[in-house]
């Protein structure tokens, strides 16, 4: 086997790294209530795999409000204020880091030639709030976020480029791996020619993620094969 190429890992947050006990959805509802008097703006659709700005855009459309850039930003700002209040209130049984994730992230960080970042629809501040609760935010020095681009493919591209820059090599020389729990994570990975490791810790089974094109999929990261796929590409 030849030498491993420089590797950029991009971890999704919700459903992949953590479960937040509904703090994000509640905070979004409270933001819409505060600014538009509607708690139900996002009740009719799943937020799974969506970027924060895309969620707000859809919610504004549903309630008949114009989804201008300023209107979206205003809801995001309110959402972040509510998120900072809601996250600490969630019972520790409902707010958790998924099995094997801390060990997987730390194992990757110990490897030379690995850049470990985030690939998430959360805006940067929302990602920090969610991950600080489980004391893992400091592991991630870069990422692609929902504030970098509303389209998930493009934010993953941004994260991959940031990781390549950290490694000091051109992106085309890197192995890029997206770790996620939804078909949107798989599609975003494939959209930039990256590999994808699916985890069944969200709303989709490993088989469902494989059927969408994931290169590997596991129930969670306690599987020995999951760590091998992450670190060695097998």
Automatic annotation (TrEMBL):
GO BP: DNA repair
Pfam families for this protein: Hydrolase (PF00702)
Single annotated GO MF: phosphoglycolate phosphatase activity
Pathway: Organic acid metabolism; glycolate biosynthesis; glycolate from 2-phosphoglycolate: step 1/1
Domain of life: Bacteria
Main enzyme class: hydrolase
This enzyme's EC code(s): 3.1.3.18
Reaction(s) this enzyme catalyzes, per UniProt: 2-phosphoglycolate + H2O = glycolate + phosphate
Family: Belongs to the HAD-like hydrolase superfamily. CbbY/CbbZ/Gph/YieH family.
Official protein name in the record: phosphoglycolate phosphatase
